[in-house]
Design goal:
Layout: H1 4-16, H2 20-23, E1 29-37, E2 47-52, E3 58-62, E4 68-74, E5 77-84, E6 91-97, E7 106-110, H3 119-126, H4 130-143, H5 149-160, H6 164-177, H7 182-194, H8 198-205, H9 216-228, H10 232-245, H11 250-263, H12 266-279, H13 284-296
Helix pairs in contact: 3-4, 4-5, 5-6, 6-7, 7-8, 9-10, 10-11, 11-12, 12-13
Length: about 300
């Protein structure tokens, strides 16, 4: 008969002979479900996000054409599952996933978002059917005077139809309802710039909070217009703002170099032309910059 201490040591030897990754492994679980609309139609291409409350692990899935999704090899425990689909109200649920028993399939129904009264007009506008879109927006506005955003949409249609005066009228009506809508201020200033009325264009552009503007082309285009109209100092200012947002904008450096030359600031011009060559040495703008630099040495 084996002595107890020999059995004890034999057991220890068996334990230590098992690979460490097997000793620390955990039993994993799986979960699946179906995403549907309120009328029980499957929602294809929806996003399903699983987030472990305990581990912080995150997975993103997409529903198939039957609205189904499935995920295996999950740690058991509490999980938050989010469901998002275009045109539907997103929702979250929290479930506890078991690795011991089978987890029941999850069925979730999403509520459709109310359709915008501008949907048909927006579709027409996207198809470049500006005259038809204009009529649709005017009908919506006639029925819903409270929808002030209709004025902005009407203004865009008139702009696309090259009726600048009507576009300006519509944009100003939009501002009368809400004076600081960024898109309206940008569009209104752009029309005045195109009409050659820099003073009015700048008046509306300066109503914007420039710190919220992230598109360098806004400042670039204004800088070009100002330069063409001999507003040299203002052109310099706006081109610098463009480059602050986009430090690798070679067109911005090129125009800034031309403005520098116009002001007689040759050294600053050289700096900006050399920057183009540094950023994009094989570009057409770099070749043009080299020719200018050869001419001002």
């Amino acid at each position: 008969m084996k002595k107890p201490y020999l059995i004890f040591f034999a057991t220890l030897l068996m334990i230590f002979s098992i690979p460490s990754h097997l000793l620390s492994s955990r039993v994993l679980a799986s979960i699946q479900g179906t995403l549907m609309s309120e009328d029980k139609k499957p929602i294809e291409g929806a996003k399903v996000i699983l987030l472990s409350s305990e581990e912080g692990t995150k997975y993103e899935l997409t529903t198939d054409k039957k609205g189904k999704w499935r995920k295996v090899n999950l740690f058991p425990g509490a999980w938050t599952i989010g469901f998002m689909a275009e045109g539907y109200q997103p929702t979250n649920i929290t479930v506890t996933i078991s690795a011991i028993r089978e987890n029941a399939p999850i069925e979730v129904k999403l509520t459709r978002l109310p359709e915008s009264p501008f949907s048909y007009g927006d579709d027409l506008y996207k198809q470049a059917k500006y005259a038809q879109a204009l009529q649709e927006y005017q009908i919506v506005l006639a029925d819903h005077q409270e929808l002030s955003q209709a004025y902005g949409k009407i203004g865009l249609c008139y702009y696309r139809l090259n009726n600048y005066d009507k576009a300006i009228e519509a944009f100003k009506q939009a501002l009368a309802k809400d004076p600081l809508v960024p898109d309206i201020l940008i569009n209104l200033s752009a029309i005045y710039f195109e009409k050659g009325n820099l003073e009015e264009g700048l008046k509306y552009f300066k109503l914007l909070d420039e710190n919220t503007l992230k598109d360098p082309s806004l400042f670039y285009n204004i800088g070009i217009l100002l330069f063409k109209n001999n507003q040299i100092d203002l052109a310099l200012d706006y081109l610098k703002k463009c480059l602050k947002l986009d430090p690798k904008n070679i067109d911005g450096y090129y125009q800034l170099g031309l403005v520098n030359l116009n002001k007689g600031d040759v050294e600053e011009a050289k700096t900006n032309f050399l920057k183009i060559i540094e950023i994009s040495p094989e570009s057409e703008k770099a070749a043009m910059a080299k020719k200018i630099l050869d001419g001002i040495k």
